[in-house]
Amino acid sequence: MIKKALAPCIIAVAALLFVGGSTMRFFPYMSEISDFEVVQVIGIDKKDGGVEVTLMADREGAPGGEGGDGKSVTGVMSFDGPTVFEAINKMNMYSDKRRHLGYVDFLLIGESAARDDLVKHLDFFTRDYETRYSMDVFIVRGATAKEFLRKTATANRRMADVLTNIDESVKALSNSRMLRLIDLVIMLSEPNEAAIVPAITYKDTSFAELIGAEKPEKTAVPDGFAFIRDHRLTGYYDDGLARAYNAITGRAHASPLSVRAADGEYAALEILQYDIGFDTCWDGGTLTGVSYDITIRANLTEQLGRENVFTKREMGILESRAAERIRGELKAVADESARLGRDGIELARRVRMKNPVKWEAIAEDWDEIFPELDVRIDVQCVVSRSYDLRERMDSQ
Predict the structure, then answer these.
(1) Based on the structure, what is the number of domains in the chain?
(2) Are residues 212 and 263 in the same domain?
(3) Which residues of the chain have pLDDT under 70?
(4) What is the pLDDT of residues 192-241, one digit of tens each?
(5) Contact 200/140 with Cβ under 8 angstroms?
(6) Do 171 and 128 touch, CB atoms closer than 8 A?
(7) Three-state secondary structure call for residue 41
(8) 18-to-5, 29, 302 alpha-carbon distances in Å
(9) What is the domain range of residue 323?
(10) Do 183 and 284 belong together in one domain?
(11) How many CB atoms lie within 10 A of CB 129?
(12) How many separate helices (H) and strands (E) can be counted in the chain?
């Protein structure tokens, strides 16, 4: 009896979902895969009270047509509108292929859009069913995303590959990081912290030549971190502070450090590890200061002088100078965060983990407490080895 009663309901629902000519749509439109152009990089800029969207996609060139040698070519298209959604749909009207956003790897936000309201310009990408939360986000420093993409791309240079390569170079320099959209959303929701977003810019390519290929007008390089306060870009950690930000937040990889040895010649160290100790200082329920005790572990990779640096005295001088250099960088990034008026070194997380009960009493006042804190940073350096050689090749 129940089955007979349910049958008309099932038929009615099926008719609503699948009947042809209905203006109601419960599922995305079906399309052939050949009708799509897969977008890998998106740029967002502020324009005329709305936004300008730049999409970059690779497409295969057919003999005799676009990319006539059969190789892939890079397509760049920009449209503006009051919203990201409308701008992208305008592009579909003027293109022979529909843009598919399910494989976007990188989202670039122009500086003016970031200063306007970062959350506003991210909203579409957190709602759309095609886009993924795993895409990496950059702020384009000193330029629009459109200008950046058009100046750094060529027909035989995939921008997605260029941006992916930044991730590899970061691991050897610790001068930036990759930040997924989902992680940025979490940072923006933190009430006690600034959101710190990798910045990117372009530089002249006069340092290099390409043989048998088109050289881009500019080349893409990391350029520190963007400091986001109250959902808006308010400043930067310059490139010289990028390593320090990664180190003080526990995200640093390997990085080179050249310091002068006792003889005045440079010695090159490779920093491999930061061991971070952390403590807090309280006066009753008042947090008066914090202290970092950091040990950096490094290897000697190059020596320009002829002195034996592996004596106790020589090595002590080398390690002391390296420690002082890193301590200065760490103190500078902490001071810059205080100057910008918001915790941009994830200090709140460390205080909360160290003293969870006391933290609850000061959490609401953290923005006023943080800039006034006494932040003490002590650094020690330990050089462990020198790879294959311990002495210079000309030593007797």
Answers:
(1) 2
(2) no
(3) 1-36, 59-73, 96-97, 155-157, 206-214, 388-396
(4) 999 999 999 998 876 666 665 667 778 889 999 999 999 999 999 999 99
(5) yes
(6) no
(7) strand
(8) 21, 12, 70
(9) 251-396
(10) no
(11) 7
(12) 11, 13
